[in-house]
Amino acid sequence: MRTAIFDLDGTLADTSADLIAAANGGFSAPLLDPVADSLVAFHGGRAMLRLAHARTGTPEAEIEAAIEAALPGFLSRYEAGIDTHTRLYDGAARALDRLAGQGWALGVCTNKPVALAELLLTRLGIRDRFAAMLGADSLPVRKPDPRHLLETIARAGGDAGRAVLVGDTETDVLAARAAGVPCVLVGFGPEGAGVARLGPAAVLASYTHLPEILERLDL
């Protein structure tokens, strides 16, 4: 069965504003910009907290410990405001429905904690589209480790030889490459069409075109 696996943050939905708000909430003044730092947001909570602490002048030797101390508060704030500003990218839900109608199995492989991913997908109204959903803590490993992606494909009922990963960052490209799976990157995130530098199988300009792009992969 042909299987399309999707990243979540920055791929299906623009979550950057809510992520950055949760990170900024742990400091006396905002340290991250919702626009300029949106790419960092899509690399996760630790990446945002690392940048924020660096901007406060936290000594390098102390940053990792500061991140671990700040992480529970960040996750709590993020859960409370998880869909305040987050929205699906235009056409994403329609593209999922078109793929399902063409017989594709669908899944989500995200480095977001699984409980938060479940909550967000449910709030966005698309959880029922996916036969499998694995988060950062679903397995002992996570992207870019290929086992995270391969297990998501298997749980969706698919075969790696007929699967594709749709993502937005180098993490997705590396995971797909290691799994022997083609990767399509969205071209409407912070880097725009510049993601082509990462060497994906294709760059997606709009979800309207996703079914046609996947057909051309000839899986």
TrEMBL record:
Keyword Hydrolase recorded: yes
A GO-annotated cellular component? cytosol
Output the SUPFAM superfamilies linked to this UniProt entry. Answer: HAD-like
Q: Which keywords does this Swiss-Prot/TrEMBL entry list?
A: Hydrolase
GO molecular function ontology, one term from the record = phosphoglycolate phosphatase activity
The record's Pfam families line, in alphabetical order, gives: HAD_2
Q: Which InterPro entries match?
A: HAD-like_hydrolase_sf, HAD-like_sf, HAD-SF_hydro_IA, HAD_2, HAD_sf, PGP-like_dom2
Q: Which domain of life is it from?
A: Bacteria
Q: Which reaction(s) does the protein catalyse, per the Swiss-Prot or TrEMBL entry?
A: 2-phosphoglycolate + H2O = glycolate + phosphate
- Cite the Gene3D superfamilies for this sequence: HAD superfamily/HAD-like, Putative phosphatase, domain 2
Q: What class of enzyme is it?
A: hydrolase
EC number assigned by the record: 3.1.3.18
Q: In which pathway does it act?
A: Organic acid metabolism; glycolate biosynthesis; glycolate from 2-phosphoglycolate: step 1/1
Which GO BP terms sit in this record? DNA repair
Specify whether Isomerase is a keyword of the entry: no
Which family is this sequence assigned to? Answer: Belongs to the HAD-like hydrolase superfamily. CbbY/CbbZ/Gph/YieH family.
Which protein are we looking at?
phosphoglycolate phosphatase
